[in-house]
Amino acid sequence: MGERKKVLVAMSGGVDSSMSAKALLERGFEPQGVYLKLHPHEEKHAANIEKGRKVAAYFGFEHHVLDMREEFKERVYKPFIETYKEGKTPNPCTFCNRHLKFGALLDFADRLGCEFLATGHYIRTDGQFFYEANDMTKDQSYFLFNVKKEALKRLIFPLADRYKTEVKKTAAAIPELAFLAVQAESAEICFVETDYIDIIGKHYQVEQEGEVVDEKGAPIGTHKGYMQYTIGKRRGFTVNGAKEPLYVQNIIPESNKIVVTTKDRVYKKEFNIEKTNLFLEPTQKEFRALIKVRYRNEKKQGLVSLGENGYAKIVLDEPEFAIAPGQAAVFYEDNKVLGGGYIV
Known about the structure:
Layout: E1 6-10, H1 15-26, E2 30-37, H2 42-59, E3 63-67, H3 69-85, H4 92-112, E4 116-118, E5 123-125, E6 130-132, E7 155-156, H5 164-172, H6 179-182, H7 196-200, E8 210-213, E9 219-223, E10 237-239, E11 247-252, E12 257-261, E13 267-278, E14 286-292, E15 300-306, E16 312-321, E17 328-333, E18 336-343
Parallel strand pairs: 1-2, 1-4, 2-3, 4-7, 8-12
Antiparallel strand pairs: 5-6, 6-18, 8-9, 9-10, 11-12, 13-16, 13-18, 14-15, 14-17, 15-16, 17-18
Helix pairs in contact: 1-2, 1-5, 3-4
């Protein structure tokens, strides 16, 4: 019988990563667990590490703790803060996935002699592309568009074809691990405990009254501070004598102004992206794709025109609402992820 293949399993202390470890054992792999310390909330770390160690002890494999808080601060936290300062809407999970979860963890896997890295993400891969998960309510393909192409051949996603309800039932059937099935879901942004404004407020003056202006630049009201808004928002500002709902169309950070208009004027067909990351080798500078501009949005048909230095132009067939600079535009072919970039 051949030697069992070693795999490093990223273990958050949640049900998904824990049941991923179980699935790997059943498939004949030799797992080692690792907990990644990212944010500064030490009490959360202690609780999650304890849960991960309990799972590892139950299944009989090693459990490690990797402290990446400094790297997280530089690669994820600071860019998150600065993006809001620039009047944009950041997507911090995409930074983390590229540099830490599927970057630094692969380096750690090398140090342990592990050929593969596994996580509890709901997503599929064939080693060349990512594909949407079977459970579309948990699909995380949008957030993984920026992972380095060369990493894919080493990734395993044991929950690729599973459904969350099924995963919870699996955990609930193990008395020693049943607590995993009933604990609360982890936060979408791990370092934001209440509201992102509280985080930014530690570094910048977020409560700073400014002008609300119309598309021609004429003052028509006031707002609480430009960092508290994103494209498409319709509440939290005051407009004098408004007779219909108005939405944020643009943010002008240098003068602390927000531009508002009617909903139909917040739709766009054309926009640019930067830092384009592709999993395919394009044979030409233009290709058609399905394009998703926010995690919760539907994919829309459009044309991608590749430029220089990671820039590209996107032209959608139909206008999309509230295309926000800083968010990701991710390209798909059916359920296959082709790549993406950050909206500018």
